[in-house]
Amino acid sequence: MAEAPATVIVIDDDVGLREALGSLLRSVGLQASLHGSVSEFLEAGRPDGPSCLVLDVRLPGQGGLDFQRELINGGVHLPIIFITGHGDIPMSVQAMKGGAIEFLTKPFRDQDLLDAIQSGLERDRSLRHRDETIARLRARFNSLTQREREVMSFVVAGRLNKQIAGDIGVSEITVKVHRSSMMRKMQAATVVDLVLMAEKLRASGDAPPP
User: Fold this and answer.
1) Which CATH number characterizes residue 168's domain?
2) Could you give the 3-state DSSP secondary structure of residue 93?
3) Which of 5, 15, 79, 155 shows the smallest number of beta carbons within 10 Å?
4) Strand, helix or coil at 112?
């Protein structure tokens, strides 16, 4: 399936700057979603494809730094580039500690913004790819029976079929049947593949039972 087009979300209450940024983005082939406040953006929703956020620090209603904190607390990983006409060092430090791509003070060079945007879009593509990979692995893992999950945990721990049979009190042939079914469902060609899958699941909070 083709990836949805990349979109740059701009939230700035300065209409002139907002429109200028929209024109700049479109001139380099990027899709722009322009908003005057955080509430406007929330009402419109996040685009389907890769995206990053160009966010003014000072906005009517909820400010940029507060919105960044809300996204972090909500587990939303949206790359952010801050822009401001009233920046200071503590403000920039707070933004960067929160994972911002860049903190640009108005007026800024178009190329500096475009470079930061490309970094943000690449980061979002990587995050989306990781999330999609984990979702596929989770679906495969969830398709396993309880016994297959148990066998998987022993296989990734390096136990042989004979040892697993003794551990769980079944015949070696039964272990082989469960193991073959588990490897097929997980789409693992080798034990090394299975171990890598288990590590990814464990890192995301899902893992075979110990």
Assistant:
1) 1.10.10.10
2) helix
3) 15
4) helix
How far apart (Å, rounded) are the C-alpha atoms in residues 24 and 110?
8
Q: What confidence tens digit (pLDDT) does each residue in 10-26 have?
A: 999 999 999 999 999 99
Domain end marker among 103, 129, 155: 129
28 and 118 belong to one structural domain: yes
Q: Is the pTM of this model over 0.70?
A: yes
Number of separate domains in the chain: 2
Dihedral sign from CA coordinates of 172, 173, 178, 183: positive
- Looking at the structure, tell me whether residues 123 and 185 fall in a common domain: no
Distance of CA 111 to the CA centre of its chain: 26
Distance CA 77, CA 123 (A): 10
Q: What is the mean pLDDT of residues 205-210?
A: 57
Tell me which residue range forms the domain holding 193: 143-203
Amino acid identity, position 54? V
Q: How far apart are CA 202 and CA 22, in angstroms?
A: 41
pLDDT in tens, 30-89: 999 999 999 999 999 888 899 999 999 999 999 999 999 999 999 898 999 999 988 778
Please state whether 163 falls in left (phi above 0), alpha (psi between -120 and 50) or beta: alpha
